[in-house]
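Subject: Tab2/Atab2 family RNA-binding protein

B.,
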Amino acid sequence: MKIWQADFYRIPQQNTTKENIWELLICDATRSLEYVASCPQKQANSTWLTSQIQLAAGEQMPDIIQVFRPQSLSLIEAAGQNLGITVEPTRRTLALKQWLEEKQYPTVVDQPPPVPLPENLWGEQWRFATLTAGDVETAFSDRPIPILHLPEYLKPLNLGLPSTAPIPGVVIYGGRQSMRLARWLHEARPVELNYVAGAPDGLVLAAGLVDRWIVATFTDSEVATAAKLYQQRQQLSRGLHFLLVQPDDSGMTYSGFWLLQSER
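Prediction pasted inline below.
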């Protein structure tokens, strides 16, 4: 499968007639492909993008174009639709972001303040948990879980983690709302689940390109201590962690499992 990463954004410089310039950058995960094109702002539209993607592709179009910047997404989606290419919004465009940083272009995307999960999705209870790296793959890959996000690039073995390494996570007992919560999370596209100290402390889920959701808040000192350990373990697991949604604590039925990784 041929996957590209692309960005189309206004750059700091202007042209000789003082017009704002938009620049298109396209690369693959190894940067063996690097394509650059620019145009004045008045030409920055899906028609121009369509022609540039055709030029970059030659005879073989990509299957997927990954985009991390919300301001780029709609235009690249329109160009992708013109060419029959799937456009995937994702924060994990590592090669592209490295290239942008080398060019001293901004990669930080403005994020809105976190908002609470919709009330009809609240689970009955939640807790911190830990699995060994070996169990992450074996405990869930063979179970009939309706929603399972276990991508190859995040599997502990592929990250070079030993099978005994502790992988921190959060378990939500959703009760009757368990499947509804799992479906909502699937559509939201979870990225990472972090402890945020404050008054009160909380767990904040980063999802999609810029969304942030308050999963839980707490003031209990014991929970805060467990939250700090959860965050410390993330640092030791290369940011790897998990989110598990199940109806209850019987261990018989699971609604959804997501393997996540901190971007930091």
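Helices lie at 46-57, 70-83, 94-102, 133-141, 178-188, 221-236.

T.
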